[in-house]
Write a structure and sequence with these properties.
The protein is of the alpha+beta class and 829 residues long. Helices cover 35% and strands 18% of the residues. Strand 6 and strand 7 (317-325) form a beta hairpin. Helix 3 (81-108) crosses helix 9 (185-197), helix 6 (131-141) packs across helix 9 and helix 19 packs across helix 23. The protein is globular and about 85 Å long.
Length: 829
């Protein structure tokens, strides 16, 4: 029977057909591979920046040169500040245009139009803020000077893009043409920073509101206390510490769940930074020093772009401005002008409020102190590449856009300083012109943008602190407020002269680590936007005070790199005592690691990782137990973010050990600690390297990735930098996580920039095929000092005015009128 089947001609015919079909598929696959390789190769070669030559520059008023050092860092010499802005736009477009495009699209809610459905959800969420409409209104408010600066920058961007000869490689890989850069797009970059640094959804107020609503007042006060003994305020102010509540408030407390240890209470902090200023009395030449260490999400290319700008200042002088720029803006955000230097941290001021609306008797209406009002309905279209476009309905009130609603079906509106007129203005440029701390304080206080701590140091030795950005004239609410009884005048802006400031003079020392800087009236004006405890700030303060005189740039860099985990000392002692008392051989082995932990967030320390994980587990379980009804309503309540200073109430409970707060299901605090220690040891022992190999470095491994590497896995070896274990953590000045950490470190004395220090992750370049893509990255990994000023020139570009050509349409040409808006708003009812 088998022999008969083998001779069946129809069977052989079927096999021949299958063979021909398989061969055809193979040929098609080979052809597709060849096409993909050719396409990828062309895209890979696309958009490499120019390094040498003479470039016609439409819109440039005078000649300009761009010198690049061996790391690709540019030094620009121009005939005026406007021409320097033009040249800045040119190098930004050459090296970082895709990054600029993502920043403006992030604020506009237009990333899905570029990369597809993966970004659609984020775009929909952003559209409620309607930033594309706000930039048009910002342009109408802008001064002639600001418009000229933005138009010169946009003309430089257009020239830089045109000179590439082909699209940036990211756009080429995606198969899209880059959209021209408009002057108003720089405002979108400012709004993108608002989204990164502020509470754009009011979740902090909503979370605190749930705590205030569901918990007894003594317990809520205990958890949400505004400060404590580790506040490290500049004015040495201390705030009262509430006592641990008695047994009465604790009516509902959840059973401790093992999976609670999978969450990290520190993970909710989205932005943190360090900065210091040291008066001239403590330096060799009397010049003050400033240091800044800005912590943000890490990726490639890095968010910052370093350069030096030079232009004439008087008949014989020259103005030099050096530091970090943000691609998309013609400004130096952190740096020095030779007379004044400045650094920044996020202030975590209370810049958002959630307003509870009472529905009116008519559909689409709500009650206010002025009477009945109706919301405006705006429909925006989110365009999705390769998917279905989405219609987004935005409902706007007098306070701001409606949110998704509260847990009880409340109507909630968001009032956010980013929505205020003038929120994205470029008055930050006044710092470039300030000559001392006094004028710098006034310039910083008048600047728009997110509320930042600004630390200043001048060549005469003075130092000072103030805040930039918009603050309210009245106290901002920290929980949702009733809009029916609230007047809009409650949110009038605070005049710059009334903003808090602190200027101790040449003898002074200043420190900033996202903590509470002042008490009293200063704190009332800033409010509580989730500022951190003073742990890092106290470590910086104590380090500054201990520096031997005279101090130099390297000394301040050393303080920024400090990975001593002194806040965890008490947790180490608790874990060591618990392990030693257990008598269990497994826990005894862990005790050896904990006893020799080293006290640092070091990559080779198993003990540090044990202590940290032990504290993390207890933090989640004890906070969940204290929050009781809140967690019962929402098991994923972000306690660590809503209670950012949770270390204070947590340690009070753990150290005082009240019997009525023993975690549910445990006989005593000692039994609970032993269970937490055993669970921590078991968790780390289950890893492939066992407990002895569970070092902190294996957990804290950093790899910088390009945003397209997730979409193009085969290209990761070219797009991403190699992984590396790094020291540091959220508890120490050297903040470091696998995807979050120092985006730059800068230390400089104004007028002594040649001794200034700078490093950042990644390099100046944005194209992986260039040597500058990762140049300097290893110095950042190792914490090695590198010069702030660009090195000797190895390449030069000459930008030459070309009066025969006009600027590219949509860039800097045209009148002072409002540039054309991008698509978005479709209908308004």
């Amino acid at each position: 029977m088998n022999a008969a089947r083998s001779k069946d001609p129809r069977r052989h015919s079927r096999w021949r057909s299958l063979g021909r079909f398989a061969a055809a598929i193979l040929v098609l696959l080979l052809l597709a591979s060849v096409v993909a390789v050719i396409w990828g190769s062309r895209a890979w070669r696309s958009g490499r920046p120019r390094l040498e030559g003479v470039v016609p520059a439409p819109g440039l008023q005078g000649p300009a040169t761009i010198d690049r050092d061996v790391m690709g860092v540019p030094s620009i010499r121009a005939a005026s500040r406007l021409d320097a802005a033009y040249a800045t736009g040119f190098v930004h477009a050459q090296d970082r245009f895709f990054q600029m495009d993502l920043l403006r699209r992030r604020a506009a809610g237009e990333i899905a139009e570029l990369i597809g459905p993966l970004a659609a959800k984020a775009d929909v969420a952003v559209r409620r803020h309607r930033f594309t409409a706000r930039v048009e209104r910002q342009w109408e408010r802008a001064s002639i000077e600001e418009r000229r600066l933005l138009k010169a920058y946009a003309a430089g961007v257009a020239a830089g893009l045109d000179d590439l000869g082909s699209p940036p490689f990211e756009h080429a890989l995606l198969g899209v043409e880059p959209r021209p850069w408009r002057p108003v797009d720089s405002y979108l970059v400012v709004f993108a920073m608002y989204l990164d640094l502020d509470d754009a959804d009011g979740w902090l107020d909503r979370g605190r509101g749930r705590i205030r609503t569901l918990l007894a007042e003594p317990l809520a006060d205990f958890l949400l206390a505004p400060g404590g003994v580790d506040s490290a305020a500049l004015d040495d102010s201390l705030l009262p510490v509430p006592p641990i509540p008695g047994a009465a408030p604790f009516e509902v407390r959840p059973q401790v769940e093992p999976e609670a240890a999978e969450r990290d209470p520190e993970g909710a902090r989205s932005a943190a930074s360090n900065a210091m200023a040291l008066g001239g009395a403590h330096t060799a030449d009397g010049r003050a020093l400033v240091a800044a260490d800005v912590h943000l999400s890490l990726g490639l290319p890095n968010i910052w772009y370093r350069l030096a700008l030079h232009w004439p200042d008087g008949p014989d002088g020259e103005r030099r401005l050096v530091g970090a720029t943000l691609p998309g803006l013609p400004l130096v955000v952190l740096g020095s002008n030779g007379r004044l230097a400045w650094g920044v941290t996020n202030a975590y001021a209370d810049t958002t409020d959630v307003v509870r609306l009472e529905p009116g008797f008519e559909p689409g209406s709500y009650l206010t102190a002025r009477g009945l009002e109706r919301w405006r309905r705006v429909v925006e279209t989110v365009r999705v590449r390769g998917g279905r476009d989405r219609e987004v309905e935005v409902l706007e009130t007098s306070w701001g856009p409606l949110l998704d609603g509260g847990p009880e079906g409340d109507l909630l509106a968001l009032r956010w300083d980013a929505h205020a007129p003038g929120a994205a203005g470029l008055d930050w440029r006044r710092l470039e012109e300030a000559g001392d701390v006094s004028t710098g304080l006034a310039a910083a206080a008048a600047a728009a943008g997110p509320v930042l701590n600004v630390l200043l140091a001048d060549a005469a030795g003075a130092v000072g602190w103030t805040v930039s950005g918009r603050l309210e004239s009245g106290a901002s609410a920290e929980v949702p407020v009733d809009g029916g009884k609230l007047a809009l005048a409650a949110w009038d802006p605070l005049p710059p002269l009334r903003k808090p400031r602190f200027a101790p003079g040449p003898e002074g020392r200043l420190w900033s680590a996202n903590h509470r800087h002042l008490g009293g009236e200063g704190l009332e004006r800033l409010g509580d936007g989730g500022y951190a405890s003073g742990t890092r700030a106290a470590q910086l303060r104590d380090g500054l005070r201990a520096l031997p005189a005279p101090a130099a740039e390297q000394d301040l860099l050393g303080l920024l790199l400090d990975d001593r985990a002194w806040r965890l000392d008490r947790w180490q002692a608790l874990l060591a005592t618990t392990l030693a008392a257990s008598g269990d051989p497994v826990l005894t082995a862990a005790h050896r690691h904990v006893a020799a932990w080293g006290g640092r967030a070091a990559i080779d320390s198993v003990g540090y990782r044990l202590v940290r994980n032990f504290r993390r587990r207890i933090a989640i379980e004890v906070l969940d137990s204290l929050l009781g009804p809140v967690v019962a309503e929402d098991p994923y309540f972000p306690s660590g973010g809503v209670i950012p200073r949770h270390e204070q109430p947590l340690w009070r409970v753990v150290s005082e050990r009240p019997e009525h707060l023993v975690p549910v299901g445990r006989e005593s605090w000692e039994a609970y600690f032993e269970g937490a220690a055993r669970a921590t040891v078991d968790e780390l022992s289950r890893g492939p390297q066992g407990l002895d190999g569970a070092t902190w470095g294996r957990r804290n491994t950093v790899q910088l990735r390009h945003p397209l590497s997730a979409l193009l896995p085969p290209a990761r070896r070219w797009l991403d930098l190699p992984p590396r274990q790094l020291p540091g953590d959220s508890f120490v000045p050297r903040v470091q996580h696998p995807t979050f950490g120092s985006s730059l470190r800068i230390v400089v004395a104004p007028g002594r920039e040649e001794r200034g220090l700078f490093h950042m992750p990644g390099g100046a370049g944005g194209h992986p095929a260039t040597a500058s893509y990762g140049a300097g990255h290893e110095a950042w990994e190792l914490g090695l000092p590198t010069p702030l000023l660009p090195g000797p020139a190895v390449h030069r570009i000459e930008l030459v005015p070309d009066p025969a050509e006009s600027p590219r349409p949509g860039a800097a040409s045209g009148s002072e009128s409002n540039p054309p808006a991008s698509a978005g708003a479709v209908s308004i009812n």
